Amino acid sequence: MNSLIQKYNIPGPRYTSYPTVPYWDNETFSKEKWIDTFKRSFIESNSSEGISLYIHLPFCESLCTFCACHKHITKRHEMENPYIETVLKEWQLYVDLVDETPIIKEIHLGGGTPTFFSEKQLKRLIDGIFINAEKHPDHEFSFEGHPNNTTKEHLQTLYNLGFTRVSFGVQDYNPKVQEAIHRVQPFENVEKVHNWAKEIGYTSISHDLVFGLPFQTKENVIYTINKTKELEPDRISFYSYAHVPWVKGVGQRGFNEDDLPKNEEKRELYEIGKELFAEMGYVEIGMDHFALPTDSLYKATKEKTLHRNFMGYTANKTQLMVGLGMSSISDSWYGFAQNVKTVKEYERIVNEGEIPVFRGHILSEEDLIIRKHILNIMCHFSTSWEEEQLQIKNVEAHIGKLEEMIDDGLVSIKGKKLTVPEKARPYVRNICMAFDKKLHEKQPETKLFSMTI
Q1: Record's InterPro entries (predicted)?
Q2: What is the model's pTM?
């Protein structure tokens, strides 16, 4: 297994989209084309499955040096009010494009630090969204909570607004690791907010853990997971630390690359975690996720309805996801569009009455077919091209790129069906790369992606 890790641990996408962002065709993209795909998708999906909203709340009071998200570091809480106003104006720009009232099935508040905002501002945001929208009967609303600044009032206010899922960023409980990533938060802080959420009535509480952090050891991971066991969250995300310091604005400069566990050492941390989670009764879901059998993510896996988009894995598939806020990415199924990446520019463009999109991609028919296959592999560890609508041009070329992985026992192909055996799940990104036509047509000349394993 170690030789396979050395062989396949290469830079590769995480496939929250296909095509991946570096391969979007920005030259033929336009805001008008994006709006056309938005309208098409809204008509097709709003009255049946509803739509999703991702709202990016970018402010953080300090920089966590492991984080690769787009954020704005500030202690100026007076920035909350104009930012919320702008998000609501952006939402109104989308509402004005359609004739029906939007029916919202899913909302996720991400960041940054959503709980940087006061509970009053968050209530104003959600109430403002629903002035011109309705809740889907099976809605699921979620947010990311920072254990150091999430208050009981935050949790109660959002629960009263329909939020039933919360994820707390834990990362690791070792003080040396926490200091290196500039995210010092004792177990007691996590325990407090977790128990508040449980007491209030949240039906899905998730803890986000990360392996591969600077100075992290087997003992750290075992300790962190054993502490997590004491609280028994409904879901656990066990992310591989993505070291991408070359990405502008990321800020992953607080430690030396030599301080990071690599290759076999890093993979061992995941295997230890996976084994401990299984002993605790968690089931592995897709890539990086574990859930108790009572959680909706597990049920979606069993019912083959698990979906993956820019929010990660979700139990609620919607064809249309609208991203609001600085740097947010929208997905109409037929197209992707990303908002501008600074607060100042975002607020300026929206206040001029324009949707603040600056780049995107309109999917071709071939893109759509490849996207389905990659989604199938990422969510269900299998795909098939038996049906006409899933038949790829030059399928032999894609399968040919899997020959080594077939020889290494990482992929099984019978007839027109591909299956990923359980032991090969760590290599799922590599397997998807075989279908990634854009990647093969133009290999990157500079660093674009984190390592796959």
Answers
A1: Aldolase_TIM, Coprogen_oxidase_HemN, Coproporphyrinogen-III_oxidase, Elp3/MiaA/NifB-like_rSAM, rSAM, rSAM_sf
A2: 0.92
The CATH number of whichever domain residue 397 belongs to comes to 1.10.10.920
DSSP 11: B
Give 339's pLDDT tier (boundaries 50, 70, 90).
Answer: very high
Q: Does the annotation list 54 as a binding residue? A: yes
Instruction: State the Cα–Cα distance between residues 402 and 424, nearest whole angstrom.
Output: 13
Q: Which helix (H) or strand (E) holds 89?
A: helix 80-95
Query: Is residue 171 part of an annotated ligand binding site?
Result: yes
Q: Tell me if 183 is assigned to a ligand binding site.
A: yes
What's the pLDDT score for residue 70? Answer: 85
421 and 314 both lie in a single domain:
no
Domain that holds residue 393: 365-441
Rg (CA), the chain: 21
Residue 429 is assigned to a ligand binding site: no
66 annotated ligand-binding residue:
yes
DSSP-assigned letter for residue 451: B
Structure tokens at 287: 């890539």
Residue 452 placed within a domain: no
Is 453 part of a structural domain of the chain? Answer: no
Percent pLDDT > 70 in the chain is: 93
Residue 392 half-sphere exposure, CB side, CA atoms within 13 Å?
A: 23
- Asked if residue 60 belongs to a known ligand binding site, the reply is yes
Mark whether 350 and 209 lie in a shared domain: yes
The answer to whether the annotation marks 144 as part of a ligand binding site is yes
The reply, when asked if residue 208 is annotated as ligand binding, is yes
DSSP 23: G
Q: Considering only CA atoms, which of 259, 410, 308, 277 is closest in space to residue 13?
A: 308
The answer to whether the annotation marks 383 as part of a ligand binding site is no
Quick: pLDDT tens for 390-410. Answer: 677 666 677 778 889 999 999
* Residue 54 domain flag: yes
Domains held by the chain: number: 2
* Domain CATH for 313: 3.80.30.20
Residue 10 in any domain: the answer is no
Q: What value does the mean pLDDT take over residues 220-249? A: 86
The answer to whether 111 is annotated as binding is yes
d(Cα 291, Cα 235) in Å, to the nearest integer? 4
Final residue belonging to a domain, choices 362, 380, 414? 362
**329, 362, 395 — which closes off a domain?**
362
How far apart, in whole angstroms, are the C-alpha atoms of residue 452 and residue 255? 21
Query: What's residue 425's pLDDT?
Result: 87
Is 242 flagged in the annotation as binding? yes
Residues 346 and 371 in one domain: no
